[in-house]
Design a protein that fits this description.
By secondary structure, this protein is α/β, with parallel strands linked by helices. Helix content is 38%, strand content 17%. Helix 6 links the parallel strand 6 and strand 7. It is globular, with a radius of gyration of 19 Å.
């Protein structure tokens, strides 16, 4: 891992978070080597092309292929395919596991599919890491495992998921803990807040969805009264957290130190097998988000209509995080204010539309 040419496997690397992460990784360390495993169900080859040049391969072609820093490898395969996972992990130093069935709604509609992707999928990737000798494994989790509780959410709250999605992410966290403690795979589980920002054109979460609906002249539907709260984190802050987790303890980490400096000395193993809330520690209602978007869109002469629908099954009422553990151990603190992030996101959508 201290070698300049660290080899990274990013599952779901064609998606919103994956492409943003890869773009930042190549900017910080152009010499790093990247492989992507993606079934192209959400992200696309065109999305990945914006982040890095790549060559497209089938899983079986990896047996004779050689990674090169000049172009990533895109392996078209599914994390429910044990063989594709095993072959993709060959010669890797780090796995960043982003591929998943995302969101409460899809998990309620099809809990079996959610289980296959989010439980079998993470198990397959952890097994691949173990068998291929991959040193580090970062797992993209969510606040959903905690369920309905009085926020702020922190890592010591007993999880009680209210949706299949929350249950499947909780299973993933459990397997990550077990694979570190049983097999020594250096796992880190990151519970992402509600991610938004440039590049989110395909996302179905509230910020991206409302912007698309406003552009199309459709009413933006808020589930229930809009008083439900979430912790909204800008994509650039989130990718910082992934890098800090993946390079924890390395003398030449990828990220420059920030205002979180000056911490007490930590054990070199302090992050492994652990869960971290990755968010802003701030609570915002969906109504607040809608108002900010409406204000920003009107500056661009785009009208936004809002209507309230029925509450959604499996949704929690309040959700925001206490990120003190991530600050202390990972040296992570979100930097981008919500108003700035919303403005940059609207600007990106406008550029894509023109």
């Amino acid at each position: 891992m201290e070698n300049e040419k660290v080899k990274w496997l990013v599952t779901g690397g064609c998606g919103f978070i994956g492409t943003a992460f890869i773009e930042k990784l190549k900017r910080l360390k152009p010499e790093c080597e990247i492989r992507v495993l993606d079934n192209l169900s959400v992200g696309s080859e065109e999305d990945l092309e914006k982040a890095t040049p790549f060559e497209k391969l089938e899983p079986d072609q990896l047996r004779a292929s050689k990674l090169d820093a000049s172009a990533a490898q895109l392996v078209v395969g599914d994390i429910t395919d044990e063989n594709a996972c095993f072959l993709s992990a060959k010669d890797m130093d780090v796995i960043v596991h982003l591929a998943a069935n995302t969101g409460v709604g899809p998990s309620v509609e099809n809990p079996r599919l959610d289980f296959a992707s989010n439980v079998v999928g993470v198990f397959n990737m952890l097994e691949a890491a173990r068998k291929q000798g991959v040193d580090r494994f970062v797992f993209a989790s969510s606040g959903a495992p905690v369920g309905e509780t009085t926020p702020p959410i922190h890592e010591n709250i007993a999880p009680k998921p209210v949706s299949p999605y929350g249950a499947s992410k909780l299973a993933g966290e459990g397997y990550c803990s077990a694979y570190y403690r049983s097999f020594g795979v250096k796992t880190v589980s990151l519970r992402f807040g509600n991610v938004y920002g440039p590049g989110s054109g395909r996302k179905s979460s509230v910020v991206a969805k409302f912007i698309r609906q406003a552009f199309n002249g459709a009413a933006c539907e808020i589930y229930g009264d809009g008083a439900q709260t979430r912790d909204f984190i800008y994509i650039d802050d989130l990718t910082d957290a992934i890098i800090k987790a993946a390079t924890f303890g390395l003398p030449n980490g990828l990220e420059p130190r920030t205002e979180c400096d000056g911490q007490m000395q930590l054990s070199p193993d302090a992050a492994w097998g652990e869960i971290f809330q990755i968010a802003t520690s701030r609570e915002h209602t969906v109504n607040e988000i809608a108002a900010l978007l409406k204000k920003e869109l009107e500056k661009k002469n785009v009208k936004m209509k809002v209507r309230h629908g029925t509450p959604r099954l499996g949704d929690v009422k309040r959700n925001f995080s206490d990120t003190a553990k991530a600050k202390k151990i990972l040296n992570f603190k979100a930097q981008v204010e919500l108003e700035e992030g919303i403005a940059q996101t609207v600007d990106w959508f406008l550029r894509e539309r023109s």
